[in-house]
TrEMBL record:
It comes from Apiospora aurea. This is Capsule polysaccharide biosynthesis. Residues 285-311 are annotated as: Disordered. Pfam families: 4HBT_2. Belongs to the lcsJ thioesterase family.
Amino acid sequence: MASSFGFMKPLSKIAKPVLLPAATASLAYGTYHGRQAVIDYLVRFFTGPGRTSRLIAVVLVLINWKSLPLAWTVRVWNTMIQHIFVRKLHTHTPDKLFHPAISSTHVSLLEVDYNLHKSNSTYFADLDVSRSHLASHLFARGCRLLADNEHTRLVMDPKHPDRPAKGRFGVMLGAVACNFKREIRPFAGYEMWTRVLSWDRKWLYMVTHFVEKGAVRPRSWAAEDFGLTADADGKHAEQDWEKKVYASAVSKYVFKIGRLTVHPAVIIGASGLLPERPDGWVSPAGSGMASPAEPVVGNTDGEARAEQQASGWDWVKTEAERAKGHAYAEHFAQLEDLHGAFCGGGQGALGHFSLG
């Protein structure tokens, strides 16, 4: 998935004061004057000749909606609109940086292959939506600030250090890899647990686990009560969670302002998710953590510092968690050199076949 938040700035200025009231008024007017026509149509639809075939068609559409034309676009855009415009921007502290965002769905009939389980290719469409939920929620604050970088001046132009970098802010997907462990049967429900895995000087890595629905509950929720927790009834004590995992995927994102790559730590810090770096801290070589040449916007006010102390989460813990995830991410990153393995058919080819 490639997405850009550059359009969000002008849209956000008119969405609530103009577009929302206009849409509401139009809907109310149309409903008032067309309600009888709608009622008549619904009566004919559900009771008129051919109603059985129509009802079957409605049921098929409802259970397969996620695989219909344009459904992917609706699902992805819904995540961005929901987290950036509708929901209140989070105030998460740095100890929440590696917490997962959980999304639930099911295997629709149109996703089933000839082996009678979820087709491998359909995992990637779900990944787009799950990653978008995490990025749009966790980094919404940073995205808003970087989309207005000309005024916030979070990232300066390397060629002109006294000027902010200019250009459209964008978030682009660089690569995805998915390892399959168990099949998911038709109509079975499952969850996607997506979280930050690690980052380096260019890429932010995310990991997504496809998990049996309802088999695992978090010990707590970061904000509102989204549902039951593991401590609610005690039946979800820690166990071998690998048995509940259907598949695991790693993805990497890059953040851009125009053609300039933004260090991932900048957007993480701008979202209030990096703790204070202690004086004298020296980042390990290749760690990707910020150096004096790559300033990070973090929590610098007294209230934020007090929250960090209360949570017991500091820079050392953040770096330790990042390094643990990077043990996986660095192997994934090496696949970037795989493009160089293309030989151009120097030794010949088998043939040219249609993809259908």
